[in-house]
Write a structure and sequence with these properties.
The structure is a homodimer of 314-residue chains. By secondary structure, chain A is of the alpha/beta class. The first copy, chain A, is 38% helix and 18% strand. The first copy, chain A, folds into two domains: 2-176 and 213-237, Rossmann fold; 178-211 and 241-280 and 295-308, UDP-galactose 4-epimerase, domain 1, CATH 3.90.25.10. Chain A has nine helices and 13 strands. A seven-stranded parallel beta sheet of chain A has the order 3-2-1-4-5-6-11, with helices on both faces. The longest helix of chain A is centred in the first third of the chain and has 21 residues, at 92-112. The two termini of chain A are 30 Å apart. Chain A binds chain B through residues 88, 91-92, 95, 99, 103, 106-107, 110, 125, 127-128, 135-145, 147-149, 151-152, 155-156, 158-160, 162-163, 233, 235, 273-274, and chain B through 88, 91-92, 95, 99, 103, 106-107, 110, 125, 127-128, 135-145, 147-149, 151-152, 155-156, 158-160, 162-163, 233, 235, 273-274.
Chain lengths: 314, 314
């Protein structure tokens, strides 16, 4: 099967490409390399069943051309802004890279009659709530532009799916960690400690408590869902049942770096405006389909720390 | 109070302006007149507390200038594509006029520190479902790009409200009818009968069953909600408890026109792709706040027919 992956040079996208190629598919990546890296896919560039286009999804005419040339059987749309905190100063980052990129993908698919879409959505669409977050939860009140851009994307996927009979899979990710991650709390701590090993300032009170899913588990879940669910419109939360506190992450980083650091908390429940401090969503739908994460949140965090520090386990 | 109304020359927007001026506010209208009409506001143009700008919300630089000059206390954002069926052939109509117009309004408000927004959303965000549609209903799966554009707008209103402390009121409208309406099923039937009085072809089976709210009731509800609810983020369905079948509308139009017409149904449950055939949402929240529609759905339809035919009751 020929699969086009947008954002395929990114952290998650590149792991997805690895696995799709492992399963004997042909893979076409479109990535503008604004956040993605050639390094993430350089091991694939020799393969005959792999092709890479450096292009921005906002460049509609170029995108139509690529999609028309390639005629993929399905599009995995992974491209998005992934630096949630950045867009508070400039909401157009998520307007363009999280939402309009999706609209363009949908519009190209409509124009060319490509009829299958797999979309990487996010737990950020749920906003700041302690409720039981099933896939049917409402109201959806995102508190970051990233979450808003993902929800806006889901909205148009729904209307395109209904109007042009596009079969769609929407999967909502929690925090994802592991090899090739380029930012997020683990990265921040390590960078801070590299410049000042004696003291680590943690934003918030350290009590932020969230599930961190290992990237290879995530990709496994995506392909499982794609394989096992075949409604016209399929929506799944993907996650891991366990969670990790920011306080614990700080301690793990300090330990893995072999430091003796004073950890200071700036206070307040949120790490930054738009941060959702406590989060855990309902995974029954995915569990009932037959999938559970193999690696706990703590283990995933540890793997990610060790990878960033160059202590690869594999 | 100074109130800026986008889409203020439109069907609903112009009624809103009438009522805001009645209540001694100062009103500034921004409308590109793509769907709005000067005719709808020409009776206001003499008033000192009324001002009109012909401008497109997509023209960001011009909009910033107008908002900066006017410094409104609150923005009533009513502008949108209102011709739902049209965008199936060109989804960019709703991308631009329903969604991006909202993003620009939000971004200008952020830039200038305008801190109150009242937004005209729609029952179309709920999609095609028989469920009990409270304001907290999920999942939201719109089947038209108009519904998707409204949901995408709500998503970003949520994130802007959270990030920049913008107090927001979101009200979701059903079908609205009455004086100055320019399209919709009533209009279509009258136009068809004017060109062929002997035969009326009705799209679908005539069993589409929806609430039609009288425009003056709608505006009354909007101002009631604005007056009585003061959370940072307020969401209300606005509607009327009664409903009217398309079949009944056809008969009422034929009767009011004094014709003896053969009515033919094209069949199928939907009038057009993206149409939601049976719809009725939960109004408990608004009823509990203390508001109910004064005019039934049938009466509202009749008023609208008589207005279009020039038989004004007032």
């Amino acid at each position: 099967m020929k699969i086009l992956v947008t954002g395929g040079a990114g952290f998650i996208g590149s792991h997805l490409c690895d696995e799709l190629l492992n399963k004997a598919n042909s893979v076409v990546v479109v990535d503008n390399l604004s956040l993605g890296k050639i390094d993430n896919i350089k091991h694939l560039t020799g393969e005959v069943s792999f092709k890479f286009y450096r292009e921005d999804l906002l460049n509609y005419k170029k995108i139509v051309k690529i999609f028309r040339n390639e005629q993929p059987d399905i599009v995995f749309h992974m491209a998005a802004n992934s630096d949630i905190a950045s867009s508070i100063k400039n909401p157009e980052i998520d307007l363009n890279n999280t939402y309009l990129s999706t609209f363009n993908v949908l519009n190209v698919m409509r124009e060319l009659g490509i009829s299958k879409l797999f979309f990487a959505s996010s737990s950020a669409i749920y906003g700041d709530t302690f409720s039981n977050l099933t896939e049917n939860f409402g109201p959806l009140l995102p508190i970051s532009h990233y979450g808003a851009g993902k929800l806006a994307s889901e909205a148009f996927i729904s209307s395109f799916s209904a109007c042009y009979d596009i079969q769609s899979w929407i999967v909502r990710f929690p925090n994802v960690v592991g090899e090739r991650a380029t930012h997020g709390v683990i990265y921040d701590f390590i960078n801070k400690l590299k410049s000042n090993p004696g003291k680590l300032e943690v934003l918030g009170d350290g009590e932020q408590y969230k599930p961190y899913l290992y990237v290879k588990d995530l990709v496994d879940a995506m392909l499982f869902i794609w394989n096992k669910s075949s409604d016209r419109f399929n929506v799944f939360n993907i996650g891991v049942e366990s969670r990790t506190k920011v306080r614990t992450i700080a301690l793990m980083v300090v330990e893995e770096m072999g430091l003796n650091t004073e950890i200071k908390y700036s206070g307040g429940s949120r790490g930054w405006v738009g941060d959702v401090p406590v989060f855990n969503y309902n995974l029954s739908k995915l569990h009932n389909l037959g999938w559970k994460a193999k690696i706990t949140s703590d283990e995933a965090v540890k793997k990610s720390i060790r990878y960033i520090l160059g202590k690869t386990d594999e």
